[in-house]
């Protein structure tokens, strides 16, 4: 991650943020575009969850990590508080590794 | 109005909620800093990202792609697609930033899932403004401090895998995204996209499989009658966006 990459990412992100406050009086965002953008974010997030839970360097990541993420999924569905979800996932994975599961 | 009068404008329950989200974000930020540095990135990378980008999900995404061996273009693209949702958020909260140029320029930088969610929950304009600035500035301070501390700690942690921190990252993103998956078409698009991404992972350079998941988008765009094929009523309202902003409390 070079400084240039970070600056490009920061500039692009700021452009998304400032567009509304600057242009609000002149244009309205089409509803379909709004919906598409929010779904695109969800699609990308789920893909990141699944690939980072299951794979490591193009291969299978082992069982401990997906098991921890599965615990997080159950807790998230039961609307557990956010810190609980994160700590439970890490603890599950750490304990399984301690027990010898890869 | 200054920060102190903003603070006094909000009721105790709102201030407590903002505090709780700050605690959650601190945990996530510390994990982010530790994962980035223990994964081999220099100390300044997570810190500069947090100051300049200030978007937790995108920061995690960019670092994940980088640590998996992906190139800068893939990392930045994935993060920018994630941050594109900030565009409608900016339109949604534009009227609470204030009229002045400085307020708009500075306020825009602290538009996040959380600050937007807090704005939408307030009943009137005065409290909407106060909620935006208190949560926005508070989260910015807490997030950057936590990332810095996590990054410093990450230098000392030899093996983050032993602590299970590699599971914390997908867990963070999952907790953010679960409420949005209630919408059936969003869920179909997301799951087909994820299947494509996993299938492509062994064959493509890191970073690309995740972008390939966007191929799942047409599943969401297809027009359907209000009553689904399974006979269940299906509202086409902004449920995905609404539930996201309602619960996406932790994406710094």
UniProtKB/TrEMBL annotation, chain A:
Name of one Pfam family that matches: AzlD
Source superkingdom: Bacteria
Record's keyword terms, sorted:
Membrane, Transmembrane, Transmembrane helix
Could you list the residue ranges that cross the membrane?
6-24, 36-54, 84-101
Concerning InterPro entries, the annotation shows:
Brnchd-chn_aa_trnsp_AzlD
* Name used for this protein in its record: AzlD domain-containing protein
Species in which this protein is naturally found: Sphaerisporangium rufum
TrEMBL record, chain B:
Give the location in the cell: Cell membrane
Q: Which InterPro entries match?
A: Brnchd-chn_aa_trnsp_permease (IPR011606)
How does this protein sit in the membrane? Multi-pass membrane protein
Q: Does the keyword Cell membrane apply?
A: yes
Major place of localization? membrane
Task: Recite the UniProt keywords alphabetically.
Answer: Cell membrane, Membrane, Transmembrane, Transmembrane helix, Transport
Q: Which domain of life is it from?
A: Bacteria
Task: Please tell me whether the keyword Cell membrane is annotated for this protein.
Answer: yes
**A GO BP annotation:** L-valine transmembrane transport
Q: Which residues form the signal peptide?
A: none
Name a single GO cellular component: plasma membrane
| TM ranges | 20-45, 51-82, 130-151, 163-181, 193-215
Region feature Disordered, mapped onto this chain: 225-252
Family in the record: Belongs to the AzlC family.
The protein depicted here goes by the name Branched-chain amino acid ABC transporter permease
Source organism of the structure: Sphaerisporangium rufum
């Amino acid at each position: 991650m070079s400084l240039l990459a970070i600056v490009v990412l920061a500039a692009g992100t700021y452009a998304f943020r400032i567009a509304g406050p600057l242009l609000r009086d002149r244009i309205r965002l089409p509803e379909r575009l709004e919906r598409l953008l929010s779904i695109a974010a969800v699609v990308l997030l789920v893909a990141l969850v699944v690939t980072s839970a299951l794979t490591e360097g193009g291969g299978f990541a082992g069982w401990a990590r997906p098991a921890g993420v599965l615990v997080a999924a159950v807790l998230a569905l039961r609307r557990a508080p956010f810190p609980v979800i994160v700590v439970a996932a890490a603890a599950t994975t750490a304990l399984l590794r301690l027990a010898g599961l890869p | 109005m200054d920060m102190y009068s903003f603070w006094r404008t909000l009721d105790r329950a709102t201030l407590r909620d903002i505090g709780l989200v700050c605690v959650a974000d601190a945990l996530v930020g510390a994990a982010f800093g530790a994962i980035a540095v223990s994964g081999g990135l220099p100390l300044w990378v997570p810190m500069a990202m947090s100051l300049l980008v200030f978007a937790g999900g995108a920061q995690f995404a960019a670092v994940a792609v980088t640590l998996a061996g992906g190139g800068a273009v893939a990392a930045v693209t994935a993060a920018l697609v994630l941050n594109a949702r900030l565009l409608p958020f900016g339109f949604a909260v534009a009227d609470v930033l204030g009229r002045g140029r400085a307020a708009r320029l500075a306020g825009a930088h602290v538009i996040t899932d959380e600050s937007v969610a807090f704005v939408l929950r307030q009943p009137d304009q005065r409290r909407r403004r106060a909620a935006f600035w208190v949560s926005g500035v508070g989260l910015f301070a807490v997030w950057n401090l936590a990332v810095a501390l996590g990054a410093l700690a990450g230098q000392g942690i030899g093996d983050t895998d032993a602590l299970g921190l590699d599971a914390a990252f997908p867990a963070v993103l999952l907790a953010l995204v679960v409420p949005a998956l209630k919408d059936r078409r969003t869920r179909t698009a997301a799951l087909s996209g994820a299947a494509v991404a996993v299938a492509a992972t062994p064959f493509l350079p890191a970073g690309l499989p995740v972008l390939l998941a966007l191929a799942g988008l047409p599943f969401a765009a297809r027009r359907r009658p209000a009553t689904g094929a399974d006979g269940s009523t299906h509202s086409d309202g902004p449920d995905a966006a609404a539930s996201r902003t309602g619960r996406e409390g932790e994406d710094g």
